[in-house]
TrEMBL record:
Name of the protein: Phosphatidylinositol phosphate synthase
HAMAP family, per database record: PIP_synthase
Any single GO CC term annotated in Swiss-Prot or TrEMBL for this entry: plasma membrane
Residues that coordinate or bind Mg(2+) 2: 66, 87, 91
Entry's localization field: Cell membrane
The record's free-text note on cofactor binding: Contains a di-nuclear catalytic Mg(2+) center.
Keyword Transmembrane: yes
Class in the EC hierarchy, top level: transferase
Main location class: membrane
Claim: Methyltransferase is one of the keywords in the record: no
A single BP term in Gene Ontology: phospholipid biosynthetic process
Binding-site positions, a CDP-1,2-diacyl-sn-glycerol: 29-32, 70, 74, 80
EC number: 2.7.8.-
């Protein structure tokens, strides 16, 4: 839900960049691909090799492009169906790369099995959070509820990763535990909402 509140402020920041990209003929899909590839590469090659601070910074910069592509699409008169699917797929890929990179590093040189378990569990819960909403919307329902959505998930994991990278003890563990609890609550909230809306409705 934080992402919805931040969007107007971010749009104002991106406005000059959007105008420049429009004049240059850059499309929203191009920005989406750049952001996805950059975030995945930063997670794999920086976080996955223990450069936690710089990995968190790099991923954050590329993730911010996720808000730029939407602004660019709206400035061009509205996004396409393909662009929406590409954007959602890119989001899932970037999220998975971050948690997988954490699991990779901490299962090896990072040597912390608790972080591995937390990262993998948060990855699964993130997938479930997105899937419940997507499946509900595919059935004609709405599912815009939840304590932790993608913005909150990224803030928690990237802050924890970055702080751990500069030597703050247990920062990542604390952030991942908060994320685990919040994501569990969110999945529950979404199932409750789907159950409420689906009362009396049957499949065709």
């Amino acid at each position: 839900m934080l992402g919805v509140n931040l969007r107007p402020a971010v749009a104002r920041v991106w406005a000059p960049v959007v105008r420049t990209l429009l004049r240059a003929g850059v499309t929203a899909d191009t920005v989406t691909l750049l952001g996805t590839v950059g975030a995945v590469a930063s997670a794999v090659f920086l976080i996955g090799n223990g450069w936690l601070w710089w990995g968190a910074v790099a991923v954050t910069l590329f993730v911010l492009l996720d808000m730029l592509d939407g602004a660019l699409a709206r400035a061009r008169g509205g996004g396409s169906v393909f662009g929406a699917v590409l954007d959602s797929t890119g989001d899932r890929a970037a999220d998975a790369a971050i948690f997988a990179a954490l699991a990779w590093w901490f299962s090896g040189a990072g040597d912390n099995r608790m972080v591995v378990w937390l990262a993998l569990t948060c990855l699964v819960l993130g997938v479930l959070t997105s899937y419940v909403k997507a499946r509900a919307e595919g059935m004609g329902l709405t599912c815009d509820v939840g304590l932790v959505e993608r913005t909150e998930r990224l803030i928690l994991v990237l802050v924890g990763t970055g702080f751990t990278g500069i030597g703050i003890p247990y920062a990542l563990q604390v952030c991942l535990w908060v994320l685990l609890v919040g994501s569990t609550v969110t999945v529950g909230q979404r199932f409750v909402e789907v159950h409420r809306q689906s009362q009396g409705r049957t499949l065709p």
